Amino acid sequence: MRLLLPESVTRLEPYLRRRDAEASLEAHRHLALVLLLREEEFLALHVHHGPTGARIDLPPDPDPWEPHPLTPEARARLERELAGGDDPTQPAEPHDLFGLKDDVADGLEGALRASAEPRFEELPLLFRLWRDLHRYESVVRAARAWTQRAPDDPTPWAYLYESVLLMEEDPEGRWLEAATEAEVRGRRLARGRGEVPDVPYAWSARLIERLDEGLTDRAHGVRRTLEPGFERFFTTERAYNEELRHAAMAGFDEATVPEALRALIPLARRYGVGDDPSRTYFIARTAKAERVQAAEAIRRAGAEIDGWLSQFDVEGELPPAVRAFYWLREAGEEMAP
User: Fold this and answer.
1) What is the pLDDT of residues 245-267, one digit of tens each?
2) Across the strands, what pairs with 53?
3) Which one, out of 141, 183, 252, 283, has a CA that is 20 to 30 A from the CA of 74?
4) For residues 18 and 120, which has the higher predicted lDDT (pLDDT)?
5) How far is CA 267 from the centre of its chain?
6) 47 phi/psi in degrees, rounded to 5
7) What does the CA dihedral 311, 314, 320, 324 come to, rounded to 10 degrees?
């Protein structure tokens, strides 16, 4: 797994310079992939979801996203989305956090057109850019050409079907017939492969979702190949979670734990981690019978734990042992059958 840190943020400048210098299909492809990765990074680092809703925290100076930070338009759109203030009667806005996507999409399209042979395997990447920009008619036209070259591949039919559904206007109904054909033929082909749900709409959405999921791995592959230092930001899931737990238990003073709760110290050291995915990781790797026993022990001691925690401001900085028991209480709820 990758460690997402400010110092590991994707730097677009080398890829932009290479694209401008070489103008090769590979350079255009690499730039498109890392641009999509950069957007994922931004959302993961700066959009936070909590019990009171979602919020966006922009990075302080020095800004790791310079010289291509979030555009004012993208920031306003994100804030509206997170506040639930979008007007459902109005068309959705394009998704382009850094204002580069139109240029990158046009460059990749030009490189594909210049290829001696059709490169349909490259189209899902271009289609992702176009869909983010709401250039659905471009997707429809290219997918239509793809179906003529590969009529038995459900992939272009999925893109054709989904894009027609998302088009804001089709005044002459010229794409309605194409969408109907795509739903019938694409779903039948997908059903024959047995790889996606055989239900209306879901077959196409799942097929495209799987292709989109692969773009992140491809972008990581590009960075690992072209940026020798990028490899140090990868680790195993186990090592990463063990490191988080070790950090959480630093300074854990058993002597500060009330006598009535000391029997739970091994559980607190094991599960009292504040990082939700990390705590879930350790719970998931505990045998079911052991989880049930642990949950019951935590439940029985619930009043004593709550009484001890009530002596502290849980919204502030807690001593390590107190913090571990706070999250142990949460773990007990998560382990309860």
Assistant:
1) 999 999 999 999 999 999 999 99
2) 50
3) 141
4) 18
5) 31
6) -110, 115
7) 100
